[in-house]
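Q&A log
Question type: sequence-to-structure
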Amino acid sequence: MIKDLFQKAEEYFNEANYQAAIEALIDASQLAKQNVDWEAYVRAQNELGIVHKYLSKYQRAFEYLFEAQKTGEVHLSNTNFNVAQTHDMLGCVYGDENKYEQSYECFLKALTILEQTKEHPRELANTYNNMGWCLSEMGKYSASLNYHQLALNIRLNAAEKYPNEVAQSYNNMGACYIFIGDTNTALIYYQKALQIWLSTYGERHPQTANAYNNIGWSYSQQADFKMAIQYYEKALKLRMGIFGEKHPLVAQSWENIAYCLMKMEHFKDALENYEKGLQIRRTITHENHPTLVKIYRNLGACYLEMQQFDTASDYLHKALQIHQQTPDQPVERIVIHNTLGKYYEKTEQYPKAIEAFHTVLRTAIPSFNEANIYAVPSLEKYYHGIKLGYALNYKARIFLKQSLETPSPNDHNLQASLAYFKKSVQVLNENRRRYKTTDSKLIHAKLVVGTYEYAIYAACLLYQKTQNLEYFYTAFAFAELSKSYVLFSKLKETAAKISANIPTAILQKEQNLQTELSSLDKRIQQLKLQINNQTATTDQEKMMGYLQGKYFDLSFQYDQIIEEIEQNYPQYYQLKYDLQTAHPSKIQQELSPQKTLVTYFIGTEHLFIFAISKQHYHFHHLPKPEDLTDTIEYIHDAIGMGDEDDLKDLGGQLYEQLLEPVLSGEVDCEQLVMIPDDCLHRLPFDVLVHERQEVESRKGDIKSNTLRHFDYLITCFQISYHYSATLWLDGQKNKSKVNQVESFLGIAPINFDEITQKEKDKNTTLTEQLNPQTHTKKTNTINNSSTNLTFKSDFNTDGKLKELTDSKAEIQKIHELFTKHKLPSTALLYHQATKQNFIQHLQGKKYIVLSSHGFYNEKNPVLSGIYFARSKKSEVRGEKSNISLANDESRVTNHPSPITEESKLYISDTFHLPLDADLVVLSSCESGIGELQKGEGMLALNRGFLYAGANNIIYSLFKVPDAASQLTPNFFRYVIEENCSYSEALQKAKLDLITAGHEPLYWAGFALVGR
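Response status: OK
Response body:
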């Protein structure tokens, strides 16, 4: 009978029918007491306590649990399982009351019993889980994750029977990842938990509502507030339906929505939602209850954003007053003092602000007890890394403000500012290194760029005052740390796999999983694009859930493999995390006397320019030009329209701002390595105007019909680009591919419609044309008018891709050059230019040219890429020669099929290409344009090829006409016949076009990244 009552209570509880569960448990308790069954009695009291905890009736919960504790001490052994359960559930209720020290002690007692007996693995997993949650609330996230992993390992063994408990582990691990800033990993864990809870509990359940809430939390921490509100509103609707309108979780939902509205600067709506949450909490708790601290703090933060400082102060000090009554809440102490510090900073009460942030440091760093505000803490051990980094950063900024407002001879505040910026950056980088997903690292880069901006500023001010090169080095290091960390870490990881002697089977398994994950992510992104912020259909939601679940499972497997490799192959771990930035002195060693490296950092207020040549360091700082992005777009417009006056004015203006201050003393400089930042990734530096001249150019007599009276930068300098100086320097050390056989692979689909009989007949002499002994070279003439041009991203009016006839000539000429010099050459044209054939032929090729249509997806740039030919319905395998031709009648057995996904090479596909080329030419539209990611650069097609193994990439910065394809044959002629470097060959090829009278539209769009 008692067993039946417990089973009924569990069923009611799982259905969220808490009153019925309580009634069944009371009956079980009374029956157990009558039968003198003390184990059953203690169990009933325990479960009554936990149900009342769920109802937020904490005092009643304590009454039941203390009764269980007293009974267990009298009637049961101190190693009894039910006694352990009492300790565990008391820990849960103490935790809900924000009394984490008591909570921790209770969980520890429970674990001592359960680990000794090892008879109840499920309950042991529950207590591991609870201990992980408690440690997370205390800010000990690494320890928390370890306990959650212990719980998960046990729960996975019983996943079919208890899937909801596996979901609970995923959910709690997601919270840990949020706290360390790995928000995208958190999102993946939360989505997996949601799918399990939906399948086990259905939509109308508290755990499902919690999952929606936590997914919203992930999005809010990624600053995607619109998406966060959607999930918060789902949680709110469910919670109100389950608990009614007066419940703490309902209040939490109102407050979460309010937070997002505040961040979106919808302050009136935010305050209304905060008030709804506050009224609920006041109804169910007393006026000074610890749970009111957070909402008072958030109200203060909202009024602070509204610059209503008096009201903000009232709420913040009210929160502080309540918090001081519960001193064992380190997380809240940190957050409230961070918010107070921001309030004092905004109201220019700098000493109080510094004291507030100093309190954060003393809370988050156990060994730091210094009262001296100038004392710089050691960071061997600390908690709450994200919040600590915030405090270090703001304390540094306040010292910087004080230095600027009241300069002193010894610059004590400025020195302190730099010291604290260094510590802030240290914490940020240590957090970032622990992130599992690329997306989390990209989000991190965007959110912390302000820290680097003011850290650079502090170091540069000290350099200007003292001329001490150490400050220049520090400023340069900060600028480098803000650039392309993700790309650099991926390249280092790839190199580490090669050097660490990892067995091929393990590497193959890792590669296969990585490829599957990339493919799944692409499908998820495509489905998101279909939904396009509209209400998803049931089928779409199911498919999204399936894809995300599969992605999670594969990610879990992938993480396990990487962890095993790191543990078993120490060299891999050492090489992978050796992410030191390039030192200027090392860069100087690699520079020739004629070469200068110029790197930029663009913040919200400042523009910093660093230049390093063989003999000199240059630094220039100016306020960020307000119209810089617009000016670059105007330059693109002027190039497209051939507007001489605009190019002259805008190009001269940008040269004066971006280059003249650091190049004026470099009289011998002929080569520039440009490291752009932010919007400068879109700038074709070629067209900046170096100096006015009447006819003569530094590179000879340029006979042009337009723009002939002044020099483009390209006429004076060889120009190449890179994502960071560190990546450029790393590339200088990796020159092994330079000694590869001079082999060539050219790809040109040319015709993207069905190949007609007329097309076949036209191409019957193509083999002869490609034979250099019989072919008479013809010179194409480019029409300077931009009207009626075919661009390498154009569609006809019927929606079909336009034919790229000049692409055929482009590949032909390069092929002729290589065969003339008896060098290996393969050209894939027409329907042989498929993605599959490309992948099969690319290994071992030193030079690769892809000449095709590109496509750019503005709504989701990761779905941008390049078109290949459509595969035939039936494919004849094998090759007869080193050149594959569409007109070869033995292979054209059927018309090609329509363009499908197999015809497209997406950015994500390029990361997994088996590539070892020294140079890849992406002769397509906008192959260097993608999502401009703050702190990481342009996430475009060229970046993928660089990651896949290419040393150098030539790409396009805007839509280029098909007729511009004649630039690449000239480029290769200078490389093969004159042994020019890539930057020199590209310059000469462009000068050929300028000399012939061609507008910048035909040559300025092509850029070189690499050595």
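Response note: Residues 692-709, 754-788, 873-898 have pLDDT under 50 and may be disordered.
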